[in-house]
Amino acid sequence: MNNVAIIGGTGPQGKGLAQRLAMAGISVILGSRDAQKAQACADELIANLKEKNGTEADIMGLSMEDATKAAADLVILSVPYSGHDDTLTTLAPLLVGKTLVDIVVPLAPGNPKAVQMPEEGSVTEAAQALLGEAIPVVGALHNVSAVTLNDLSRPINCDILVCGNDLAAKKRVMALIDTMGTKAYNAGLAESARCIEALTPILIRLNISKEVPFSHAGVRICPPEGH
Amino acid sequence: MNNVAIIGGTGPQGKGLAQRLAMAGISVILGSRDAQKAQACADELIANLKEKNGTEADIMGLSMEDATKAAADLVILSVPYSGHDDTLTTLAPLLVGKTLVDIVVPLAPGNPKAVQMPEEGSVTEAAQALLGEAIPVVGALHNVSAVTLNDLSRPINCDILVCGNDLAAKKRVMALIDTMGTKAYNAGLAESARCIEALTPILIRLNISKEVPFSHAGVRICPPEGH
Question: Which Gene Ontology BP annotations are present (chains A, B) (predicted)?
Answer without folding.
Answer: copper ion import; NADPH regeneration
